[in-house]
Design a protein that fits this description.
heterodimer, A: Rossmann fold, Rossmann fold, 2 domains, six-stranded parallel beta sheet, six-stranded mixed beta sheet, B: mainly alpha, 11 helices, about 70% helix
């Protein structure tokens, strides 16, 4: 028994020495970072995956587990404990994504003023010196896909096209997508008819599919879904109809969803373009700031200027006029000639968005 | 938008609910309550999506969809046997063991996707089910076939009578030489197979890929359809069509003066009202949910 205790003690001491040594070694080079995610983890193929991609890019894929690591929370009850545990391990930076982390991050930052933290998609937390909040101007990217859809309709010789928008749960963030999209379309077709639908769920593709079929049957040309898993239904319906020879399109969101729309022999996709939101830019930006010692708390806006939003040109059927028009719109947004509205109220006041949409501005 | 155009869409939404509910009905008629329908659908959807994707990435054509459907039925059937062992042989609480499978399904499907695709969902399946000239998916004809077959087996074959007897009075069935254990095993297995078939139909007709939120409570709606349909094939058919139609109409009639929330409430409200209205009479199989203990005398 005594012998066993002695061995255990020796092991513990040696472990603690090595553990410490390992840490000091890493301190000398690049900053250390931990990304805390919700239950979906870093493989969610969208938001968290993009943030994770940025981290891996920053470290050239070297040092996972020592320089950078990810910690998945099983439920929102774990958010604050996970933040505190991570802080105790002495990481230079903690990354969180999504507004669901907002409350936990705000409470944490007040309690740990020396721990640097960033959060993506939030701009309303109390401003502290140790917290950067990254917010995206999705309306700018959505404007481009609206322009692309409208130009494609013009290219196809459709005189009076109707455009659809399918949202997940209504709210201020999704409204930015819808309003940007509408203003993009209206810049080409000032009198275009717009229809919209909110599924009140991020995971109900059957509802989006039902709506998409009904709309396509009634003559809607293109549908933009900003609805998470629900949007799969829109793309499925568009792919079925395109395979059957009907000229209709779907537009993807957040990442390039070209591959989700492949049909038939996988050479053509029903996803005309996608509104891109480059979450990786935020993680790279924060890590660079930590490395250079220029980390300053506050709100950082990601938009077209920072290449935080954009549109995808993967689909070869996207016509040249659409690309030209998108590039022109991009230049105008950069120069400030075009200012895209963020809220339904502002767009309605400007006389662009029609009344009676499902978008809300809270 | 005329009503004829709506029917194929309504049937697309209804078919998975209907197929699952028929399975749940057969299971309960044999005397075992299966609240695991939700999880069995999810497992079936995942199995079908994984199989079809893998086959199609090796160059297989439309036949891969049907291979996926068969694999889904097989895997869900096998998983349902866990419930059968717990409920029939181990005489465990059937609600608990069913809930266990529902929780297991969440983990197992995401785990499979992580292993195969490195993310929480499958990749997009390029070839899925297609509509016929009338606008119906194969899932519609499958569902109708399942209803007719279940009616025939339940009421026109000796096995159907044995099955119903096991749900009503297993001791009496046992006394005339019916193997209650075997019949109940078959009942549970059929509900698993049909749950898997329904999940496969959902993923092949309603979206492009399997996601963990795909089934989203429709297994529980099927369970409600069994009760509201009073445990008969025709009743379950009516209940499922009503529930499916209310889901589809919540979308198709959005923008009219009726708020879509009204349709979202319908399945639940009707089930509650039906349960209250029929509370005096006893339509449920008398021994559903009760383990059968063979008396030793």
């Amino acid at each position: 028994m005594k012998k066993f205790l002695v061995i255990l003690l020796v092991l513990l001491v040696s472990f603690s020495i090595f553990a410490k040594g390992g840490k000091e070694e890493t301190k000398s080079s690049k900053p250390t970072v931990a990304i805390l995610t919700d239950a979906t983890g870093v493989d969610d193929k969208s938001f968290n995956a993009a943030a994770w991609r940025g981290i891996k890019q920053f470290y050239n894929n070297e040092g996972e587990g020592t320089l950078y690591r990810n910690i998945t929370a099983q439920s929102s009850d774990d958010y604050l404990p996970n933040l505190k545990n991570t802080a105790a391990q002495g990481y230079d930076l903690i990354i969180t994504t999504g507004f669901t982390w907002g409350d936990a991050v705000a409470a944490f930052c007040a309690e740990y003023p020396n721990q640097k933290v960033i959060i993506v998609d939030v701009d309303y937390l109390p401003q502290t010196a140790n917290l950067i909040q990254y917010i995206y101007e999705e309306e700018q990217g959505s404007y481009l896909v609206g322009v692309a859809a409208a130009k494609q309709a013009q290219h196809d010789g459709i005189s009076n096209p109707v455009f659809g928008f399918i949202g997940g749960v209504p709210g201020a963030t999704i409204t930015k997508f819808e309003i940007g999209y509408i203003e993009g379309i209206k810049s080409v077709f000032p009198n275009a008819k717009i229809v919209d639908y909110y599924a009140n769920s991020w995971g109900a593709p059957e509802l989006a599919k039902t709506q998409a079929k009904s709309w396509y049957d009634s003559g809607v040309y293109c549908i933009f879904s900003a609805a998470g898993g629900t949007g799969g239904g829109t793309i499925a319906q568009a792919a079925e109809y395109r395979a059957a020879g009907k000229n209709v399109w779907a537009i993807g969101v957040d990442s390039d969803q070209y591959e989700d729309g492949l049909y038939g022999d996988k050479t053509k996709s029903a996803v005309l373009t996608s509104m891109l939101k480059m979450v990786e830019n935020s993680t790279i930006d924060a890590l660079t700031k930590v490395e250079n010692g220029t980390f300053v708390g506050g709100v950082v806006t990601q938009n077209m200027k920072t290449e935080g939003v954009g549109y995808a040109t993967t689909n070869a059927e996207l016509c040249a006029e659409a690309k030209t028009a998108c590039e022109a719109a991009k230049a105008d947004i950069l120069s400030g000639k075009i200012v895209v509205n963020k809220t339904y109220a502002a767009s309605k006041a400007a006389g662009i968005a029609p009344a009676g949409l499902g978008a809300i501005d809270d | 938008m005329n009503i004829l155009n709506m029917i194929p869409t309504i049937m697309m939404v209804t078919a998975p609910i209907l197929i699952t509910a028929i399975g749940g009905m057969i299971c309960e008629r044999s005397g075992v309550v299966n609240v695991a329908l939700e999880g069995l659908m999810s497992i079936g959807a995942c199995a079908a999506a994984c199989t079809a994707f893998i086959l199609q990435s090796t160059g297989a054509g439309g036949g891969s969809v049907w291979v996926g459907v068969l694999i889904a039925m097989l895997i869900s059937g096998i998983i349902s046997l866990i419930h059968a062992v717990a409920a029939i042989d181990l005489k465990a609480n059937q609600t608990i063991s069913g809930t266990g499978i529902n929780l297991l399904a969440d983990g197992i499907t995401i785990f499979a996707c992580q292993v195969l695709f490195g993310m929480d969902r499958t990749d997009t399946i390029p070839i899925r089910m297609h509509t016929d000239g009338l606008g119906f998916y194969p899932s519609f004809y499958i569902a109708i076939g399942v209803v007719v077959l279940s009616w025939f087996v339940l009421y026109k074959t000796p096995f159907g009578m044995h099955l119903r007897a096991c749900g009503e009075h297993p001791a009496a069935a046992d006394s005339v030489g019916i193997n209650v254990r075997r019949v109940r095993y078959i009942g549970v297995f059929v509900s698993g197979v049909l749950g898997g078939l329904a999940g496969a139909c959902a993923v092949m007709t309603q979206t492009t890929q399997f996601t963990s939120t795909l089934i989203g409570g429709r297994g529980f709606i099927a369970l409600a359809a069994v009760a509201f349909g009073r445990w008969t094939p025709i009743g379950v058919l009516g209940a499922s069509v009503l529930f499916g139609a209310s889901q589809a109409l919540s979308v198709l009639l959005s923008g009219t003066s009726i708020p879509s929330e009204v349709f979202n409430i319908i399945p639940y409200a009707i089930t509650l009202i039906a349960l209250i209205a029929f509370s005096g009479k006893d339509f449920a199989p008398r021994s559903a949910g009760l383990p059968y203990e063979k008396s030793s005398s």
